[in-house]
Fold these 2 entries.
Entry 1:
Amino acid sequence: MEDAQNERSDAEIIRDILGGNVDAFEALINRHQGYVCAIVTKKVPTDRIEEVAHETFVRTYRSLETFRAKTPFKHWLASIAVRCCYDFWRDHYRRRETPVSSIREDGWEGIQTLLVDGSANASNGHAPNREALRVLRWAMKGLSAEDRMVLTLVHLEEYTTAEAAALLRWSVPKVKIRAYRARKRLRKVLADAIPDR
Amino acid sequence: MEGKKRKVDRIEKALVQAYRAQTVPGLPPGWRDDVMRHVRRLGAEAQEKAAKPATTPALQKILFPAAAAGGLVAAALFVYMLTALPGMEQDLFALLRQDPSGLLVTAALGL
């Protein structure tokens, strides 16, 4: 039974689901959960990955009727996953209660560590530098949800502007401008935290 | 002394490398079942909705166009009466005054 599901194309499974066989959706989850997880993992905090991945598949199910087989299902699913991450941050920012002063202190300490112990040179080739990730998370807090998403896709994950535009459902010029400004803002946040002497 | 721009470049590079070096953890075993439970619930709700006889929308489909058409006919009739039958408004007014049930209306109007 599982083998039969594996042999079917995404489009066939979707037709089956739309025909009333809700259980067939499990085949889509099995096939794409790793891909969705990879998209979501680096974009939201670790303790929220499950929740955002869950929301991605539920939204996918809800909008299956609007899926047109012109584009591969995987691309369509990726845009939903990115949208879920974006919505997560928008919601998060709306409810943010952390005082700005404490955020600044956190980042300042991290940057000091990175500069002093020389770990800003690389992540020693194996495990990611925890301090660098902490500084990155801190610096990202100074950006809007839009800036965060576009910066993540274009600068950190190296998507082309056209790919990022397709994922975010924005125009290419908007992605270009936003990505440029977001990076500038991130650099300013970092520069402001570096002590003058 | 190292310039600020260079320091920012150095830190930015380290941040990008650290970001890319992160590993992707798998989702826990029960996660898929949770999603499927949610999806099945949504599916059942959708089926329930589809199975319900849609009386209200059907009624609305008939009622509103019928009311609009009736309103238009009444307005057209009223305009016709005023233009094609001269003195009609006086006759109507007289009838209203003579009619016992119209007394209250005329009294309310102070006539």
Entry 2:
Amino acid sequence: MYKYDAIDRQLVNERVAQFRDQVRRWQDGELTDDEFRPLRLQNGLYVQRHAPMFRIAVPYGLLNSTQLRKLAFLARTYDRGYGHFTTRHNLQLNWPQITDVPDMLAHLAEVEMHAIQTSGNCIRNITTDQFAGVAADEVIDPRPLAEILRQWSTFHPEFAFLPRKFKIAISGTREDRAVTWFHDIGLHLVEGPGGETGFRVIVGGGLGRTPIRGQVVREYLPWQHILSYCEAILRVYNRFGRRDNAYKARIKILVQALGVEEFARQVEAEWVHGKDGPATITQAEFDRVAAHFVAPAYETLPAADREFEQRRQSEKAFARWVDRNTHAHKVPGYAAVTLSLKPHGVAPGDITSDQMDAVAGLADRYSFGELRISHEQNIILADVRQSNLYALWQEAKAIGLATPNIGLLTGIICCPGGDFCDLANAKSIPIATAIQQRFDDLDYLFDIGEIDLNISGCMNACGHHHVGHIGVLGVDKNDAEFYQVTLGGRQGNDAKLGKVIGPSFSAGEMPDVVDKIIKVYIENRHTDERFLDTLDRIGIDPFKNRVYEGRAHGRAKAAEKEAA
Amino acid sequence: MAQLIKNQAVAVDAWKTLEIAEGETPETVALPAGDVIFPLAVWQARKAEIISCHKRIGLLITPDDRVEDVAADLDYFIVIAVHFPRFVDGRGYSTAALLRQRYGYQGELRAVGDVLHDQLFFMKRVGFDSYALKDGKSVDFALAAGFTPFAEPYQGATDQPEPHFRRRSA
């Protein structure tokens, strides 16, 4: 992975000193709360329901074991011994003291980490595919360009005070795994006519309050130009994006208002000036950064390990875990492994300090000391020998991180919700937990098969509910918490938004609602049809009818209320 | 009164900024004598008049103004003031970058309005060389620490057009 050089190190150390001074000035009254707010936000520090929430960047999801041990230490020393992995390659701590944060940043800097621009109206952490570098279907490794983008975006002087936050994702596979259709800028690999590396530039996607699928602003951009092209997009946005209403300030609103053709025309007109300028990435720089991402010392192994295959035949529980939690690797005899942070009954994405230490040990013993965080809020050990899978599984089981539910109903993506977050309209974790308890039978879970259930506690959509096959959104009605259900959303190349099925439900109804939806699928599915296939074939109505069967609506409901 | 920092030192501000009071318009406002910074709308409405009676001319650009509209006139201005109504409104950074990088403006480029300590570094990088630091903020502290929180930034900007990767010794 990328190792800091003297300049990289100096910048994060200077950042620590800068923030320490800002906190001091705020305490001394030299900075007002309003003046301090954007400064602390750009260091990942929110003031939340219970305490400040501190968001640490895990750039493009990559960590080494030393860094994870440091995160464990921070959570144990300055917080309550656990952290929460988000959908954007960040670790959040929910209970630190503002005055401790400069020291926490200093600890992070020691292991080449930071919280730079993890919040605020600036360019956020660059995200990519959690299987970057090992995926069997990968065309290029996006990590060197992600690192180059990270450096470029760090303290960019022109774009530190944008109308609103700005998220960039980059994907190096044909099948998108970085949600590029739903970012402010999505760079999705496209090969040029001669096989050269380039990107389709997608702009103006986003979930949140106004979910919009991004639109293609340029079909093909050679990789050398991604910085200058992003600068052109950002300059148009910085100048003309709305600043009068925070809810209409994202770039997606500007793209919609101008129309994608006019927006693209303005970007291209701007880019004429920056194209081939100093921001053009040189081959030398690409090579320098790429050298940090060389493949580890893989051994030459047979494609299938005999003992592994035997274990798989003989132990059903192991076979299930292999089936759900391991992934094809481009090197024979290796697999990528997902450690599920979705054990039933625990807040999705949460991990204790002790678990972090244990996972660091697993990474050291089984995966060259490195790991990744996925946008599905799980941990990936990317380079595990097949022959070690059984031992790894047993160790992961012992620390509660081997639930075989990746891609299944209980592998829920979920935001922290109303239990922790100030923005939330409703709690999200108890809904996830209740659904996990309802579907605690592994046989049934496997029979249901692949399905994404995503839960957000408010329309800001941190739980990506719009792109869940089943999406759940917490809403506030007359100060009570209700949940709106969408069906048919999806990520990937054919990403689209789910459709709302009807009136919302109380928290208590949610497990039944999901149960009914699943039953309709099971009754209607053809052999080998996944949930989404059946839904696409039979449409949303059979689901709707079952869920609302016997439920009073509209006037009938009003009358019922009246009677009560 | 804001405190002026110019060329990394405290400076005396000889310029007055013309304000358009209620009931006045760019077409009707009286043009004062002396060194005056004129709002862009006044400049556009009264260009010939201003040129005929002022040797030293300043221009005020607000976030809603389009710098393109005065790109051909830049040689007239000794100072251009870019207004930050609130420090979180970052449009002025693009205005400054365009003036310096695209339109080759060489005169004084002044940040005015909600100009605070922690933004000075960014302002310097995009091409400002004078700063009307908001009242109540320490000029001495700004001069000592405001411009240099980071010694070696990554990306190119007006003050250093080459990104760090192009200046790296191989």
